[in-house]
Amino acid sequence: MARPKTPILSPVRIRRAALALVDRDGLDGLSMRKLAAELDVQAASLYSHYRTKDELLQDIANEIMEDVDVSGFTGGDWRHGLTVWARSYRAALAAHPHMVPFIAMGPGRREVSLHRADAVHGGLTGAGWPARQATMIGAATKYLVVGAAISSFSRGFDDDVRVYVNRYPNLSQAHRLSEHAAEIDEESFGLALSAFLDGLEARLAHLPD
């Protein structure tokens, strides 16, 4: 039997093509019609696998969240657990920045995200944090991670020195920041995370028994 000219559609192939489209064109650039054109199939072919674009995006979000590591909580060290979780969470989101607004809306019913949230909450409460505090720490960590993943501080400056020289004396080297963006962003995230964790340690020490 002759092999088909177009590879048979599968959910995995659809998700990969859709994510590549989002990475390239943004969330607004994804439509089932456009995705079908990328896959060289009719749009109707997609609907036997995914009824809606939102359902497809939910599965893509689940796959991205698979890379988020919550194993650091297993030893009972909440600070280590938060560090591993936050760094891997940021890396997973930063790899696909156009997906961040969708993922950041919340876990909803996404199984992988809910497993991660459950592990974080359990790790914190198991280490002695009250449940309400644990919920707040999870939320605060998310705010830190999403903010770091969705934009780059350093790349927000213009490369043209004339924008800054003689106009903003304290920003006279700002045009060079983009050259070191990855380094600055990584170290800045580390600084923010460390300060956050130090503050939590002080808070935990003063919680009533």
Report on the architecture of this protein.
This is AcrR family transcriptional regulator. This protein has 209 residues and is mainly α. It has 2 domains: 41 residues, Arc Repressor Mutant, subunit A, CATH 1.10.10; 137 residues, Tetracycline Repressor, domain 2 (Orthogonal Bundle), CATH 1.10.357. The protein is 59% helix and 0% strand. The longest helix has 25 residues. The model has no long low-confidence stretch (mean pLDDT 93).
The CATH topology label of the largest domain is: Tetracycline Repressor, domain 2
Tell how many strands the DSSP assignment holds.
0
Total number of distinct structural domains: 2
Query: What would you report as the Rg, rounded to the nearest angstrom?
Result: 21 Å
Any guess at the CATH architecture of the largest domain? Orthogonal Bundle
Class based on secondary structure composition and strand pairing: mainly alpha
Q: Give a short account of the largest sheet.
A: none
Low-confidence stretches: none
Number of distinct helices: 9
CATH C-level category of the largest domain: Mainly Alpha
- Encode the helix/strand succession as letters: HHHHHHHHH
Report the mean per-residue pLDDT as an integer: 93
Distance between the termini: 73 Å
Specify the helix fraction band.
55-70%
- Measured by DSSP, the beta-strand proportion falls in under 5%
The fourth-level CATH homologous superfamily of the largest domain is Tetracycline Repressor, domain 2
Which outline best applies?
Answer: flat
Domain HTH tetR-type: 8-68
Protein name: AcrR family transcriptional regulator
InterPro entries: Homeodomain-like_sf (IPR009057), HTH-type_TetR-like_transc_reg (IPR050109), HTH_TetR (IPR001647), Repressor_TetR_C (IPR004111), Tet_transcr_reg_TetR (IPR003012), Tet_transcr_reg_TetR-rel_C_sf (IPR036271)
DNA-binding region: 31-50
